[in-house]
Amino acid sequence: xxxxYTYQEIAEHNTPKDTWIIIDNKVYDVSKFLDEHPGGDEIIxxxxxxxxxxxxxxxxxxxxxxxxxxxxxxxTVDTNSTPVVFEKKQEDAKTESQGNGQLAVIVALLCLxxxxxxxxx
Length: 121
Ligand code: HEM
What we know:
Bound molecules: protoporphyrin IX containing FE
Structural class: alpha+beta
Distance between the termini: 77 Å
Order of helices and strands: EHEEEHHHEH
Shape: elongated
């Protein structure tokens, strides 16, 4: 397979009907496979247009899964192209704002304690 795609071109294939993912700098068209995926469609779709190497390897897919994956290869990544910066997923953003909220509570409590201490001086 000699097609070479930039990160930007790959990122554009990010819909349920047209889903590409990158694994080990190879590009895979998994559009037709989403419904069949034993791990569910959502988990792959979340990585649509992105590099899913870490996610794919973390699961410890079987040799059969690897063979199946090979059959979906449509090309390779132009690793000299500029990587696409994806917006943070909602969940990440949520965790972050929760973190900020916790920090605000701690700071408020500290202020109360210090204030209380100063008033009683
Ligand atoms: C974002 C990438 C992917 C993630 C996060 C993911 C995740 C998972 C999960 C959670 C399971 C269930 C594991 C279990 O049954 O214990 C699974 C199973 C499976 N996945 Fe994926 N998957 C991904 C991509 C793919 C791709 C691209 C293929 C093949 C084209 C594939 C093929 C399979 C197969 C055949 C199984 C059944 C168990 C096995 O043979 O390893 N997966 N996957």
